[in-house]
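MODEL INPUT / OUTPUT PAIR
PAIR INDEX: 1
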Amino acid sequence: MLPPRLSAAPDALCAEPGDCLAVREVLARIGDKWSLLVVGQLAEGPRRFSELRRAVDGVSQRMLTLTLRGLERDGLVVRTVEASVPPRVDYALTPAGRTLLDPVRALVTWAETHRTAITAARQTFDAGQAGRGAPALPREDAA
């Protein structure tokens, strides 16, 4: 039997039925394409923008900027500017951001553990889809 918070109700993962919108907003932030990768890079300590850009493979300057701003807005990352020439800007996890590290590590471990099975399932699924093409639409004159 599932704990009360994990019942089969439509909002099963939310503590209260109306909380799901807020939960979805938070999950959208941390579950986007880049945020967890940035959080992972900041796990060892503060990093400069250029260091993050090199470390997060495939992220554009614009997307990294937007991701860092979003994480900062949500209180997960802090941006520190040092008065120097040129100015030095560092990004670091806040205490709230550091609380993400254990769940992120758990997800990475899960992905590593199950990647072979997932790859096999994808291959099986894709092989079953080969030749099927687009699903047939019902004909208007069929009645």
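PAIR INDEX: 2
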Amino acid sequence: MTDQPIAQRVAGTQAASPAPVFSPAAVVASCAGFVLIGALQALYGPAIPALREEFGLSPSAAGLALSAHFVGGVAGVLLFDRLFGRIGNRRILGASYLLMAVGAAGFALAPGWPAALAMALLAGLGFGGIDYGLNQLFAVGFGHRSTAMLNILNAHFGVGAILGPAVVGAVGAEHYPAVFLVFAVANLPLLLCLRGVRDRAPQPAGTVAEAPVRSRALGSVLAVFVALYVLHVGIEAGVGGWEPTHLETVGYGAGLAATATSVYWLMMTVGRFLVAPIALRFSAQAIITVSCAGMTACLLLASVPALAPYAYAGVGLFIAPIFPTGLPWLHRAAPHARRAGALVIAASMVGGVAAGPALGKAIEWSGVRAVPLLLCGVSALCLTATLWLIRSTRSH
């Protein structure tokens, strides 16, 4: 697997289309859009202290803003999947940017907490449409370069997730309405770049070495893809949520634990940029296999206190390519399963929501020191799912 597989080159030929799906300006605007959705998701947490003070909320009630955002995100993915192919791509993306802008502005100006939650839900609806729409179009719109372009696109999500809290920290949580308003306005120029998006995307095609899955096996393949996405996003959220607590439990100071967690998120972003050129040379299956194996090894090493901060950074590096790299593989394996992309993207959001309560219950039983081992077990399941998918999607 040292050369670009013949199947990938064939896929690039088959996926070629008379006109590009994105103009150069639209590619840049799409990356900017992912910076914005990454920032939006990350803005709610730093704003919680000001939300509690303004609306008189308990910590759990204030956390409902992010939950409403994720519920809206799942609904947005499923809604815009129903519209995908029925109305033009420009309308889908334009409506999503507008919904996110209106929701963010409404959240900033909401007179009461119920209205704020409704606006977070609305912003999440637009978030889901952009997440689904751009991932779907990038997965089929660049031929053999789709995997590389998807990693670059999703790396910009990480850039936004890093910048969002930094901006709130710089201006102060009490000024969160101004931050959300600026965010809402920043969506609007992207509407002007939608003319560079092709209104009808090409259909994905199977490859020589990856013949489309037979209909009788399609359900099993889709179910395992969904499981892979739920589990790996659960690990992503689990490390982000519990790494500081685990590091403090094994003897590190609060400052170092927070810094190490920031490095974990930074490594996720760096990892996606780094894998883009690698994706032009190696297959999606090889990249995801190495990613799952490396992630499992790093989580095992994280159970050793002296290695834990460095091992968590390694987890961020290895987990980075899985989400964007799996989508082109899915589209090649099941080109006629129109809703496959929506299912795995919605599943990834559900995985992020479910990870907190599920891991919390497991930690109550086993203790905080077991966090890396619990996540290592989940990562081993990801590796098993990947190996099964490789065998099941290989042509006979």
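PAIR 2 NOTE: Confidence is low (pLDDT under 50) at residues 1-18, 205-209.
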